[in-house]
Amino acid sequence: MRVTLREVAEQAGVSMMTVSNVMNGNRARVSPSTIEKVQRIADELGYVPSASARSLATQASRLVGLLVPAADEDSLMISPHTMAIVGLIERELRKYGYHLLLRGVAHPDEVAEALRSWSLDGAILLGFLDEEVGKLTKKTIGAVHVVAIDSYSANRLTTGTRSDDFAGARLAARHLLNLGHRRILFAGPAFSGVGVVHERFEGFNQAFADAGVPRPGLVETVNTTYEEGRELGLVLRERHAPTAVFATADILAVGIVHGLTEAGVRVPEDVSVVGFDDLDLCNYVTPKLTTVAQDIARKASTAVSILMDSIEKGDRSKHPVTIDVSLVERESTAPVRT
Prior knowledge:
- The protein contains 13 helices and 13 strands.
- It has helices at about 5-10, 15-25, 30-45, 50-60, 80-95, 110-115, 130-135, 140, 165-180, 195-210, 225-240, 250-260, 295-315; strands spanning about 65-70, 75, 100-105, 120-125, 145-150, 160-165, 185-190, 220, 245, 270-275, 290-295, 320-325, 325-330.
- The strands form two sheets. Strands 1, 2, 3, 4, 5, 6 and 12 form a seven-stranded mixed beta sheet that branches.
- Helix 10 (about 195-210) links the parallel strand 7 and strand 8.
- The chain is elongated.
């Protein structure tokens, strides 16, 4: 049976209010000896504070919502990259004594609804378009502290962290240019204005400018899925005849590699391929994937740290934190064949 607050109070010879204050950290008016005694007896009895009771006592839910886009009302858009970050965020929140609630959002308007309807101390937005983040207002988010990951929105009600997308794509294109490639195709989702894909496209272009090489203008708009990557790979050689491809995500790059292989195109002998993320799957495919490595663990821990400062210290003034990236060269790239 669950040990109650009353049982701890009776064993310690103090009031239930005193035990509640000790357990919830309200110890200003409790003597050190009483705190030690209550804590010892609680440990001996195996008392575990009720989360709901603690929330009432502290006026805090200890809940953080993690909102991710849903493809429709029945499924979440959980890419391997998103899955990795979700697990890391949950681990970081546990260190602070917070619990994670995962919510899929099929329509942008549901972001405000989710923030209002849950009893949240904070929320992390992952994978939303900048225009969606930009629409959040004080009225819609209320008192909830909000952090956005991979956002370039200028909305002052949110802050967050992101990888250096511009530098990463620049590294990828520079690597391929240094291998002698000139017909390099850019593959990624549609974009407009600022945002992750826009920054990667600009970084990709900058590498050509740095090298004084005309950009070939090879672009394919595809969603970030293995299936669309494979479909593109099947027709890529006939459609564009590139010698190399930069894909904006590893899962897309892996699909392209498999499609090329099915079409009888060798990677990297005929076409080199570079991805972006450095997920575990890069080492599980053949050939192993050259990619831009994001420090996903640091991105997750930074997002949680910013959120905790906002919740616990009232510090909402932090600017977005940009995480450095690096190129990991594996087997999917090689010098262009002449």
